[in-house]
Amino acid sequence: MAVALLLGLIGAWGKLSSAPATRLAAETYTTVIRGVPELILILIVYYGVPTLIQDVAATMGFDIFVDFNSFIAGFLTIGFVYGAFATEVFRGAYQAVPRGQIEAAYAIGMSRILMARRILLPQMWRFALPGLGNVWMVLIKATALISVIQLPELMRNTDIAARAVRQPFTFFFAASLIYLAITVVSMVVQQRGEVWANRGVRRS
Amino acid sequence: MELIWKSLPRLFDGALLTVEITAVSVALGLLAAVPLALLRLSHNPFLRLPVYAYIFYFRGTPFIVQLFLIYYGSGQFRDTLESVGLWIFFREAYFCAVLTLTLNTAAYTAEIFRGAIQGVPFGEIEAARACGMSRGLLYRRIILPKALRLALPAYSNEVVFLLQTTSIVSIIALLDLTGVARVIIARSFEPYKLFLTAAVFYLVMTYGVLYIFKKVEFWLSGHLRERPDDSVKAAALR
């Protein structure tokens, strides 16, 4: 999630940037990532990228062996995929901050960074939290896919246990309840976070 | 490059299976979702709560867990299923995949429809009641058509997600697009070439689906657009 947040901020900045090259790069990133299933991307990163590096190295005359740790491959891919989703959320949040406030900040002589820190980011959190909450929920569920590359996370361990005692239904159902519990806890945290981010807003 | 060229026909077959599974699940899920959304909005807790629990469960757990629960988990009840003659279905990976995808998408779609039904302006419902429409007629003529239009953007997202979710069924050895790519890779050891080709296939399918939905949205919003004929507007202004 940390990787996703960072990439999301960079991506949103890229999409709103005035330079066409960065805008194009950010646009390609979100378009491609959102059009391709996570499973394919996980498999590309875990199986594809090491061989790609090896092939490239071989053509340059090096004979190396690259192997990704499944944990690193897993969190890089998940971060990369959900960075694209977070990009869209941040872009929406940025556009929801009233233009006049940004102009006012410049008018009283704030620098770009000060403006971003004091005016933009505190308000963006408020608009971005519901969207980020959604991204987080989907991300939790996507982590189950990493079991495909044999990372011993919840799903993989359940699989091993279920095979050992031959009670697949019991074990997978238990696993699903654990995921459900994580979802419920995230919902509560998200609600608290929204209350916190909205503390300065008057409600009718 | 040659390998990619040679495997294109097989990847294409896989893509067809992906499309087929997606289409069947979307159709069945849609059929189930409308009544589910209505039950979810019912005032009777005995109707509402089970549907709520079902939606909550399927939206709160990963698809892969649901798939394993149904595909591998059904094995635990093999004797019972055999005695009622359902085992022949649960033995098939294809059946389990479609069943899980349908249950999964029905839950998400029902939630989208619930939001859309609640989004129908109350004034329109009131007006229909004032005209003396019965409940059934009200739903059929006013609420559902309007809700369908409101739900369309969110629903197109759901269909795209479902299309991408189908890649997971390759894990239970179905030869969909991802499955075919994995089989070819197991023989040729060229992972990135084939996975990237498969990714391009998915990209094309995703944006194809989005294009179709854009067309449907355009077609359904005809009454909201300006008339193409300018002379009519000019005459009205005069």
Which characteristics define this entry?
heterodimer, A: mainly alpha, MetI-like fold, flat, B: MetI-like fold, 11 helices
Q: CATH superfamily of chain B, called what?
A: MetI-like
Write down the overall geometry of chain B: flat
* Poorly predicted regions of chain B: none
Range of strand content of chain A: under 5%
Number of domains of chain A: 1
Q: How many distinct helices of chain A?
A: 8
Determine the mean pLDDT of chain A: 80
List the helices and strands and how they pair.
The complex is a heterodimer of chains A (204) and B (238).
Chain A: H1 2-16, H2 20-35, H3 38-59, H4 70-96, H5 99-107, H6 112-142, H7 154-165, H8 168-197
Chain B: H1 2-40, H2 45-60, H3 63-71, H4 78-83, H5 87-90, H6 93-118, H7 122-130, H8 135-165, H9 177-188, H10 191-220, H11 230-237
Helix pairs in contact in B: 1-2, 1-6, 1-9, 1-10, 2-6, 3-6, 6-8, 7-8, 8-10, 9-10
Write structural notes for this entry:
Chain A is mainly alpha-helical. Chain A has eight helices and no strands. Chain A has helices spanning 2-16, 20-35, 38-59, 70-96, 99-107, 112-142, 154-165, 168-197. With 238 residues, chain B is mostly helical. Chain B has one domain (2-237): MetI-like (MetI-like fold, Orthogonal Bundle), CATH 1.10.3720. Helix content of chain B is 80%, strand content 0%. Chain B has eleven helices and no strands. Chain B has helices at 2-40, 45-60, 63-71, 78-83, 87-90, 93-118, 122-130, 135-165, 177-188, 191-220, 230-237. In chain B, helix 2 (45-60) packs across helix 6 (93-118). Chain B is flat, with a radius of gyration of 23 Å. Classes of the chains: A mainly alpha (204), B mainly alpha (238). The A-B interface holds A 32, 34-41, 43-44, 47-49, 51-52, 140-145, 147-148, 155, 159, 162, 166-170, 172-173, 175-176, 179-180, 183-184 and B 56-57, 60-66, 68-69, 72-77, 164-168, 170-171, 178, 181-182, 185, 189-192, 195-196, 198-199, 202-203, 206-207.
